[in-house]
What does this fold into?
Amino acid sequence: MVGGPGAGKGTQAAALAKRLGLAHVASGDLFRRHLRQGTELGRQAAKYMERGSLVPDDLTITMIEQRLGEADAAEGVILDGFPRTVAQAEALDALLHRRGQGLDRVIFFDVSRDELLRRLTGRRICRRCGHAFHLVSAPPKVAGVCDHCGGELYQREDDAEGTVGRRLDVYQTQTAPLLDYYKRRGLLVRVDGEGPMAQVADSVKKAVREPVAS
Ligand code: AMP
It folds into this structure.
């Protein structure tokens, strides 16, 4: 799943993974887990994440390689937020090749910069279950409290206004070139990511079923 920060990759990837019975591998979540667990990788990644920059490719690729080596990834995974650079995409190709695997589809969530900005700055996440709310378009029933598990809602440090602009620039310069990379390989399927969540979910289902138009 490729798209700007806040494009809906996480929500859709989780739903698709559940439906297909595959593991959901989200690089941002993996970094945040390393951070919580206080690992060396988490400590190194934090410096970049706080600023809204990308974590260096070598650290990111090592982390993904480890994750893909775990038992639940053997049958395939839904990758969310990785790769984010052409170098990562090349490393992924090599890694999958070594494992006798390959990419079936690359789903691109097309969302305008203004909409990404609106989504990210209003996003609030449950500390306990990870569910995402939006202060305006999907507010919780009780302010600051998760509807699903009663957990506390918080704003990710990198969703604060100052860092969001930087993340959007990073997406434009470092990640958007991936679209061409995958288009040339005939793997890219574009999904309009601006509609209601159920509509986007339908488009994702279709994108997974239908052959990629060349
Ligand atoms: P996300 O949760 O996907 O928005 O990612 C949060 C942050 O984790 C990003 O702003 C980056 O600092 C870092 N990150 C996540 N995925 C990658 C990746 N594939 N390459 C480099 N940095 C990443």
Observations:
- The chain has one domain: 2-202.
- The radius of gyration is 17 Å.
